[in-house]
Design a protein that fits this description.
Immunoglobulin-like; 31 strands; 4 helices; mainly beta; about 475 residues; flat
């Protein structure tokens, strides 16, 4: 039977599950007398990192101005939510402009249990009868479930995606539509919530009209996704500043293929001779986007240096393409280290108040990768004081002390930690600190003292040796 003609099904759900998760109360009143005139949601499932683009046209029906719009996320979404962005739009098509808006986590006392809310602050309050259009982007990780959970080398990877055909919102929604884009035309099955249809790689749910607050209609899509599920379980990036002209970066990776687990034997001969038919969901190449003017690049794992890499550089960017020692199938892991040096003048600057600051990029250099835990350490020169980190999102921060060669009092280390990091977190951040130039003489002085002591010890040894020979 052709794939397009395969019958669809409705997901059977038990009554307790429906009552506890999906039939959320509809009698709560929203914080403001707002309603959503139109909601269009586009869900991109072409990668293991799910991107959702949401367009909302909001109207104020109340008598008092409204300066905030609330976004609601189900407990399952909240658990895997990586980032939420919003912007106000004006104009149409090519002349459309986007103005970023402030988005913060919030709580609504009348919200259903487990629902997570975010508040979008409007540029100007909406008066009665006025409307505003918002563009929202939110990203979900670890939200595709492999099914079957184990596959052989020759099988394709199939996954489940769970969501709602109807937008979960604290407001009344006049009209809404949901589009779901899959990586290929192979869709095993999907839940039908009329009206719903499929064309090529796109599923369309809706339009649905006059949905009350907190409406929810679960859907399940079973489809093929052979994209690499590259997940870094832990990444430690150490950025060490030297005022003698260099920034040294060391990155320690613990990588895993988070897709369907590999079962059975692995045939390297078959993998190399039939790359299009075997191991289609595995990956053997990784791409790291590094800063321009990078130098002294190395790549090694637990065994030693790995030479299967290619570095491309120009004045705008550097790209390091490399291969682990073996291809990664579902459930397989690899640990490795990437290190490189950078010119100090490209990343260290002086602020008007006399402080120095490092301007670097947060996040993970590997493309299309989720980082479960990122630890970023900025090692300041010895003698640095009053460090302050400026970063555009919430992270955990603390200070450490590190001792290196010829150090006397140790170096201050600014530690930034964040979970669930995606490529959209690769944004600039700054670390400010004060530094007395007199500390530039500390290491040469210590080195001179060490050489002097070595010379004295050598002379004393030679004198003692000559005395004994006499």
């Amino acid at each position: 039977m052709p794939m397009e003609e395969q019958p669809h099904f409705r997901v059977p759900l038990s009554l307790p599950l429906i009552l506890s998760l999906f039939l959320l109360p509809t009698s709560f009143s929203s914080t403001h007398d707002l309603q959503i005139l139109n909601a269009e949601r586009r869900i991109d499932l072409t990668s293991h990192i799910i991107k959702v683009y949401l367009t909302l046209k909001v109207e104020n029906l109340g008598t008092s101005p409204a300066s905030e719009v609330h976004l609601a996320f189900s407990p399952a979404e909240a658990e895997h939510l990586a980032i939420v962005k919003a912007a106000a739009t004006s104009g149409k098509r090519k002349k459309k402009t986007y103005i970023p808006l402030d988005v913060k986590s919030a709580e609504l006392p009348d919200g259903p249990n487990g629902t997570k809310f975010f508040t979008v602050t409007l540029l100007t309050p909406l008066n009665k009868g006025e409307t505003a259009t918002l563009e929202v982007l939110y990203i979900l990780t670890h939200s595709l479930e492999p099914f079957p959970v184990e596959i052989t080398q020759s099988e394709s990877q199939l996954v489940y995606f769970r969501d709602s055909a109807i937008l979960l919102s604290p407001y009344h929604v006049k009209e809404q539509t949901t589009f779901i884009k899959t990586p290929s035309t192979r869709v095993e099955s999907f839940t039908v919530v009329d009206p719903a249809k499929r064309a090529g790689t796109e599923l369309k749910y809706g339009p649905y009209e006059d949905q009350p607050p907190y409406s929810y209609s679960p859907v399940l899509v079973h489809f093929e996704n052979n994209n690499p599920f590259a997940v870094v379980e832990e990444l430690e990036r150490e950025i060490e500043i030297s005022h003698w002209g260099n920034v040294q970066v060391t990155e320690r990776y613990r990588l895993v293929h988070a897709g369907a687990r590999h079962k059975g034997a692995f045939s390297r001969v078959e993998y190399q001779t039939r790359p299009d038919a075997t191991g289609v969901s595995s990956f053997k190449h990784l791409l790291a986007k590094l800063p321009p003017r990078v130098h002294s690049v190395y790549y090694r794992d637990e065994i030693g240096n790995v030479s299967t890499s290619n570095l491309r550089t120009d004045y705008r960017k550097s790209e390091l393409e490399f291969q682990p020692r073996y291809p990664l199938f579902g459930g397989w892991k690899s640990t490795f280290v990437i290190g490189y040096g950078l010119p100090l003048q490209d990343f260290l600057f002086e602020s008007p108040d006399g402080r120095r600051y490092l301007n670097f990029t947060f996040g993970c250099p590997l493309t299309q990768t989720v980082v479960d835990k990122l630890i970023l350490k900025v090692v300041l020169p010895e003698g640095s004081k009053d460090p302050t980190a400026v970063i555009p999102f919430q992270v955990d921060q603390h200070l450490e002390i590190k001792y290196s060669y010829l150090d006397v009092i140790g170096r201050t280390v600014v530690v930034l930690e964040k979970s669930n990091v995606v490529p959209e977190h690769n944004v600039p951040f700054q670390v400010y600190y004060t530094f007395n130039p007199i500390f530039m003489l500390a290491e040469p002085l210590m080195l001179s003292i060490a050489i002097f002591l070595f010379f004295v010890a050598s002379v004393s040894y030679l004198h003692a040796d000559l005395s004994i020979r006499k």
